[in-house]
Specification:
Elements (H helix, E strand, L loop, with lengths): L3 E4 L6 E3 L14 E12 L3 E12 L2 H21 L8 E12 L6 E15 L5 H10 L5 E7 L4 H25 L4 E10 L17 E2 L2 E2 L12 E13 L1
Parallel strand pairs: 1-7, 2-11
Antiparallel strand pairs: 3-11, 4-6, 4-7, 5-6, 8-11, 9-10
């Protein structure tokens, strides 16, 4: 059975902008209303590995017993890499019958047990060994890898500061063009929303061998793409 490793282009974009980027503002005389976007790029702090455990059997009991073996193999792999199995979170668990519909008849031929797991890692050096060992053990029939920013507060602040700087620069240019001087800020809003970019799966090919040694994991020696945090600021400035 083929096994696939999905690498999600090593990035997740956290976008601090909502659909309502231009809220209704009642502009007062001698004011300037401007809006601007800002951004801040930073390295991700968390790798997210997702994989499924899937097993089949003639009966639900047999399928579940095979799934239990795969789950135990997974726990052993995690422990071997210095990770407590409790760090892996279960997303769902399902038991589904399998049918043969040949000859226009529905015949029960077995059961499939499937469960999904998500593992978050701060130590990126463990990504390659874990994904490869899961594949070698025929545990993770499919895997995906993505990167995210679990502590985005500082990045958000810097993105907002960048957006405000751009908004004020635009307001100053407009005020100067009209022969006026820009005054103090009288109103501001920041629209926030975190959006995760979804990447299409990429099939994982068998690892080639060189002089009897296995080549590094597909993710090793590459740098995860930066996370781009964006912000939109609307501001009203007084005119002097």
């Amino acid at each position: 059975m083929k096994r696939a490793l999905v690498v999600s282009a090593a990035a997740v974009i956290l976008s601090i902008c909502s659909a309502a980027q231009n809220p209704t503002v009642t502009a007062m005389p001698n004011t300037i209303y401007v809006g601007a976007d800002g951004k801040f790029e930073t390295a991700p702090d968390t790798a997210v590995i997702q994989f499924n455990i899937s097993a089949q059997g003639n009966t639900a009991k047999d399928a579940n017993a095979e799934a239990e073996k795969q789950a135990e193999s997974t726990r052993q792999i995690l422990r071997a890499n210095g990770i407590d199995p409790k760090q892996a979170e279960i997303g769902f668990y399902s038991v589904n019958p399998r049918y043969d519909y040949r000859d226009q008849k529905q015949k029960l031929i077995g059961y499939t047990v499937t469960t999904s797991a998500t593992l978050k890692l701060k130590d990126f050096s463990k990504i390659g060994p874990i994904t490869q060992q899961l594949a070698d053990a025929s545990v993770g029939q499919s895997q995906s890898l993505s990167y995210t920013l679990e502590s985005p507060d500082e990045a958000k602040r810097k993105a907002v500061a960048d957006a405000y700087r751009r908004a004020r620069a635009s307001a100053e240019a407009l005020a100067m063009a009209s022969g006026r001087t820009l005054g103090e800020l009288s109103y501001a809003s920041v629209d926030t929303q975190e959006n995760i970019r979804v990447f299409a799966p990429m099939a994982r090919r068998p690892m080639p061998m060189v002089a009897g040694a296995q080549l590094p994991s597909p993710t090793e020696e590459f740098t995860p793409q930066n996370v781009t945090v964006t912000a939109h600021v609307n501001a009203v400035f007084n005119l002097k």
